[in-house]
Amino acid sequence: MDSRGWVPATAGNISVRLPDGRIAITRSGFHKGFIPEDGVMTVDLDGRPEQSNLRPSAETGLHCGIYRRFPQAGAALHGHSVPATVLSRLAGPQVTLAGYELLKAFPGLPTHEAAIRLPVLENDQDIARLQARVTEAWDADPAHPPGYLIRGHGVYVWAEDMPGALLRLEALEFMLACELEARRLPR
Amino acid sequence: MDSRGWVPATAGNISVRLPDGRIAITRSGFHKGFIPEDGVMTVDLDGRPEQSNLRPSAETGLHCGIYRRFPQAGAALHGHSVPATVLSRLAGPQVTLAGYELLKAFPGLPTHEAAIRLPVLENDQDIARLQARVTEAWDADPAHPPGYLIRGHGVYVWAEDMPGALLRLEALEFMLACELEARRLPR
Amino acid sequence: MDSRGWVPATAGNISVRLPDGRIAITRSGFHKGFIPEDGVMTVDLDGRPEQSNLRPSAETGLHCGIYRRFPQAGAALHGHSVPATVLSRLAGPQVTLAGYELLKAFPGLPTHEAAIRLPVLENDQDIARLQARVTEAWDADPAHPPGYLIRGHGVYVWAEDMPGALLRLEALEFMLACELEARRLPR
Amino acid sequence: MDSRGWVPATAGNISVRLPDGRIAITRSGFHKGFIPEDGVMTVDLDGRPEQSNLRPSAETGLHCGIYRRFPQAGAALHGHSVPATVLSRLAGPQVTLAGYELLKAFPGLPTHEAAIRLPVLENDQDIARLQARVTEAWDADPAHPPGYLIRGHGVYVWAEDMPGALLRLEALEFMLACELEARRLPR
């Protein structure tokens, strides 16, 4: 993710659901391109750290929000690319992606003819309040895809396992880069 | 191809014609930046897999369409870049490339003064139908170059061997990137 | 820094404050992507080289200006990216960055709701005169962030230590890239 | 040069003047990111190969034109970037670069306040005729810098030695990238 410019500074974080139900997540304050061996810690489904002396990523609440809602979610990624940041700052409450072959990377979309509507949420340092808004967006649109944008901040995607989440993140970032290019062209 | 961003997610695929006429092609569902040893399989000229338990790339029919039509084609590449995706979504039925030194990478074009007209085809999950349209485009323009675009999807190129196909893909992607840059500039 | 295109040609330089108060800084005329073992030298707080036969970076005076003013500064970086160069050529006396999650990388900004105003200074080969203008900008805006731009030239950032300065440079370059993208879009 | 996208397909070439006055230059038809041990050959100042069975780069005549005219030139580079290609297609007979700190990489320009005027020549597969036009441009502007553009094709730069030529190419490509960015912004 670092080599593609998706985790600048200490931004971005990564989590997986362990077989026993605990969540392994990157710790706060590390550069995600250089994660040390002890840069990952475990929390419960409500984001409470098992080792009280370690601090999980500030956005652990958003990862846990995903795992609580979607029992089949096994891995979640938060990236922070230039296209996601710029587009989310310009967008309204949703970004619609249509007509891309790579939409096949999203579930329930057997063909490129479908479209996905990604919720775009206002950024908020109060993670519980932000997660409440995410849940609201999920409730409002039952066809929501496994991903959303936070304005000026980045993208969240999830899948059954880490390879699936990485493919989905790569497909999503590719389509966002295309959208940004297309918006740039004079009409 | 991965390091240049041409094979995001599971997109893109690669094939070569073997000396005995069979086609070796990447299997479905792998990330092409990390092809495992068993990530390649063989099919016949009609795309039928030799090992019935393996699934070839969904677009095997397009590779075989190339090998059936052009006896001299020895390698075919399908890439999936941001410029190819954005340009193909904006273009009409053809993209014309003219005045580039790199046009020399295409056959029958001894100088940069020539031009190539790349067909742009509507994307279709029905590969047989898509290949029928490709064949139609070849029939309609006898001067068609060894390459075409699929709208919102990517580019196909072929050549006598793999180094030749890679050079051609690199030249084509370079010129598409230039075209996208030029279209961006205010007129 | 080189792999991100931030130190083209001999541009860019790097310094740290040593425990005894001396400043270690890259020497003049080296490519900063390939710094040899003897490519770093030490100067005093006024930029005077300890080894009279070595020539420090031309901009040593700007590094020392930072260390003299900010006792807590332990590392300073000068980068030279395309976005910083283009934006600084277009900007007035300040560039304001607001609404970015990555603003958290700057001190005294607990949330993304704050904004930073980066001074933009006219380039000058007379480094003493340029440093005088930097000092003037610091005096004029007590809320100045730990960074500034020089027009057509690049960016300076500093922090308590080198990892902190690198994170800050990466966050700043990310936000400048977003700003440039946003300005490009037709309004 | 390859990792920066400056030598797509078989484009780009590299030469140095040997101590005995011969010119070592990359051979025709190789990808310059993967030069084999025997990918370099020697020619005399008029471009005649010493080994009659090897074919030098098609543009050997341009390299020799530089070495014949500038006795102090020790290395010459021909790159082929997207910004150089796009800008040269849009430009008139010259591209002027002004106000960049990196102009210091060019000789006789002690400060960033100077400007350089790069000749832009029409592309031509007749290399002798193209070199004649280059010579004409040099005669017409005694203040010409050690570099020029060929329309739709790329850039040539030279310097006393290879490290100097690489620095100059990097500085020039950086400034061309900045120019292209600046032209993109809506006015």
Automatic annotation (TrEMBL), chains A, B, C, D:
Keywords tagged on the record: Amino-acid biosynthesis, Lyase, Metal-binding, Methionine biosynthesis, Zinc
Cofactor: Zn(2+)
Enzyme class, broadest EC rank: lyase
Superkingdom: Bacteria
Record-level Gene Ontology MF annotations: methylthioribulose 1-phosphate dehydratase activity
Known role: Catalyzes the dehydration of methylthioribulose-1-phosphate (MTRu-1-P) into 2,3-diketo-5-methylthiopentyl-1-phosphate (DK-MTP-1-P).
Protein name (record): Methylthioribulose-1-phosphate dehydratase
UniProt source species: Sediminicoccus rosea
